[in-house]
Amino acid sequence: MLNHIGVHVRNFDASRVFYDVVLATLGGRRLLESPTQVGYGTNTPDFWLYPLSGADEGVEVHIAFTAPDRATVWAFHDAAVAAGAEVLHAPRIWPEYHPNYFGAFVRDPDGNNVEAVCHEPE
């Protein structure tokens, strides 16, 4: 049901580099870009970054990206670690959500909680 999400980031350059690497593991890439925004997606831009302006400190956002399989969740995790992300939760099953919920959680350069999740059985 998610159509798109936009996140304001403190370090626009660092966030673009981070999401270039991490979203590539999920088939995502930069599709639209200007000095004030960048849109990522596979076919259409559905994940947007905007530089934070003024004194606004922003708030943590939780973003979950769909992965087609568990290997892709691992690839997302490994790419995030290589890009310097803090690991919140390494890839594993989260049975409290459902028996096939396999996810990994990391912090992006602005402290947002970013997840890759696969809902398919192994």
What brief labels describe this structure?
globular; alpha/beta; 39% strand; 2,3-Dihydroxybiphenyl 1,2-Dioxygenase, domain 1; 4-stranded mixed sheet; 122 residues
Task: Name the CATH class.
Answer: Alpha Beta
Total DSSP E strands: 8
Order of helices and strands: EHEEEEHEEE
Counting structural domains, the number is 1
Low-confidence stretches: none
Rounded average pLDDT: 92
Report the sheet-strand fraction.
Answer: 35-45%
Secondary-structure-based class equals: alpha/beta
> What is the helix fraction of residues, given as a range?
10-25%
Widest sheet: strand order? Answer: 1-4-3-2
Largest sheet data = 4 strands, mixed
Question: How large is the count of helical segments?
Answer: 2
Query: How far is the first residue's CA from the last residue's CA?
Result: 24 Å
Shape: globular
The CATH superfamily title: 2,3-Dihydroxybiphenyl 1,2-Dioxygenase, domain 1
The CATH topology comes to: 2,3-Dihydroxybiphenyl 1,2-Dioxygenase, domain 1
The rounded Rg comes to 14 Å
